[in-house]
Amino acid sequence: MSKTLHEIEEAIETLPLPERLQLYKDMPQLIGRNAEDLDWQRLGLENFFQDDSPDDKVYDSI
Fold it and tell me: Of 1, 36, 39, 56, which one has the fewest beta carbons inside 10 Å?
């Protein structure tokens, strides 16, 4: 049985809070990733998008 991402998101939204928290805890293993790697990736992306140096304006005019 194949589900679309939208269907999965809708199903998750209907779960009771304890089950959503359990899913959040289990997600790294479910997608085949290490939880610590995902934390580092999230932090890296957050910092990347927060870096809005004035020097980068030169790339906005392309």
Answer: 1
